[in-house]
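Hi team,

Filling in the usual template for the complex we talked about on Friday. All components are listed, including any nucleic acid strands or ligand strings, so the model treats them as one assembly.

SUBMITTER: L.P.
PURPOSE: interface mapping
COMPONENTS: two
RESIDUES: 558
SEQUENCES:
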Amino acid sequence: MPEAPPDALPALHVENVDVTYGRAVSALRSVSLTVPHGTVVALLGANGAGKTTLLRAVSGTLRLHRGAIAAGRIRYGETELDGKDPVAAVRAGVVQVPEGRRVFAGLSVDENLRSGGLGLGRRGRAQVQEARDRVFTLFPRLAERTHQAAGLLSGGEQQMLAIGRALMAAPRLLLLDEPSLGLAPQMVHRIAEVIREINAQGTAVLLVEQNAGMALSLADHAHVLEVGETRLSGPADELARTDAVRRLYLGESAEDRGAA
Amino acid sequence: MTGFLDNVLNGLALGAVYALVALGFVVMFKASGVLNFAHGSLLLFGGYLIAVLHDDLGFAGALALAVLATAALAGALDRFLLQRGGLDEQSAHIQTIVTIGIDILLFTDLARRIGGDLLPLGDPWGDAVTELGPVTVADSRLAAIVVSTVVIGTVFALFRFTSWGLSLRAAAEDLEAAALMGVRLGRVRAGGWALAGALAALAAVFLASFPAPGLERTTGQIALHAFPAAILGGLASPVGALAGSLLIGLTEALVVGYQSELHVLGEGFGDVAPYAVMLLVLLVRPTGLFGGKGAARV
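RESULT (copied from the run log):
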């Protein structure tokens, strides 16, 4: 398997990617984006815009949904990711936290964390203890509940576990699909802090969010998808000031701005 | 009273053998979402190999080879035939139907080879019996209990402590999330099928040894009694398969043991009893004894 040299600073390159489901339904058309090493990039858009599809294309899980990359390339550093299985992405250091948390409810917290290291195979065993310490430092609450079934955790704790599980594979790029979904505002704030912390430790983040306010406050760069195509892209703070984003995703009306 | 203890011990032995079959059935289902209707024929395949090989290789050699060959066959059937249909739940339903076809092919060929014969497997227990206080029990039955206990304990340890076991349980809970963790779904799943094949070959030994007269072409059908055991246990629950098997084994042994008192039910109620028990359990607990949410995969 081709791998980037460990000291390189790899970036994720998505170039002109088309994705279709069931060979008929076009979900993405010529979408490009780059996630440079160590940055946070936000991907915004309404339901059905193709945000999750893009993450699936990167992580290699399109096939489980009968989808395929019809055109374009996806690379992480030197590693080609398009058309590969999820194992290739995990081994390259790209790990996705799925939408809706999807922790293994019947497994204990500890087993969920162990499962996060499964993709590394034998050579990853040494990293596992180190990764576990990192996860418990980030989420002390998980350390208190290692033997509890994951399904009994609260929504916020499950989101922490889902992120912690992904961190067990020591990713260099974390794909986060709607981490704020269904969480109380206080917990959304906490998750935002965690993302900032993970990024500060050197992990790049591609953040898919409907909560545009949160995403834009965290991101260096942002892209807005609309019905499968890139509508806007640019530095996050600039994008946050554009009319379209303010109106469509930040919930402000023209009058609000007039008054301000 | 002695009769009762005899029956209980026989029932436990029978249950232990059913457990090998039912556990395999459950492991396959948990790993793939596929109900393997070819399981009885896989068992017959393993038994047949022991029958034809034990003269040359000795019983232990023949058993080892048959266990490996049946594991390889089951694993290969899944990896190279069933998995081509896809790994998702909808495909699993189609693959379940495919196993019926596999069963017909495999059984027809084995039945042609075995014909009307009764094949001895050359097991070391023969028709020896052991006196345990007031009860007399066949050595083959004691061996069944001991071997099943050790093997099933090992399987549970594999589930709990190995990467493969964790991968399998994670994939059974959430296929996509497991894939995102880098679990090699295809390999893990085929591993489950191979393990189940090995268990089936082992079960064939005890289904064909004393007091059974030997391996016959219907031996695979006797294993059908393990299916209600798996279903009443909860289908996706290994512990349930174990409990279900003991319940079915005991029921069958007691019904057969007290046949004369139960003659109102007619001859051969022992064959029907497993299904009657299954229906009774499912009436009270539709998801089976241990089938919580896990059985939602059906």
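MY TAKE: Residues 2-219 of chain B form one domain. The interface with chain A takes residues 87-88, 163, 166-167, 169-170, 173-184, 293-294 of chain B (CB under 8 Å).

Thanks, L.
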